[in-house]
Amino acid sequence: MPGNLRVLSIPCFIGRPYNSRDRKHHIMRECTKVTMRGVKNTVRARVRRDPEFRAGLLKQAIESLMAGDLAAGKAELRDFIKATSGFEELSRTMRKKPESLIRMLGPKGNPTAQNIFRIIAEVQKQEGLHFEIKIVH
What we know:
By secondary structure, the chain is of the alpha+beta class. It has a domain at 39-127. The chain is 55% helix and 13% strand. The chain has six helices and two strands. The protein has a two-stranded antiparallel sheet with strand order 1-2. The longest helix has 16 residues, at 51-66. 12% of the residues are buried.
């Protein structure tokens, strides 16, 4: 595997979970799981050395949010922040606790539009980027 990406074979269960009294309904197969630590480290390294890639990640997050995919947009924005300035720096400029920002962009988070747009504005300012919306028919 390239870089520090590792692949693990782990048992995956199909149907009901394993129960020693009910073995006939238990089917097991091998699954391949890519460890996320390797992927995240690879992305962080690329973000630090490639400004176009960094801008592309932020663009993807904003496009996901604009398309109505809040879950993907939050996840992409969270990953972007982790790979760049971090939540500590963002919390200082926004005057919010880092935990609050992390929770907002987490899977169960429900940020207001005001908070999402403030985060995007701050991130753009930190990165020296300016995004414009273009209407395409």
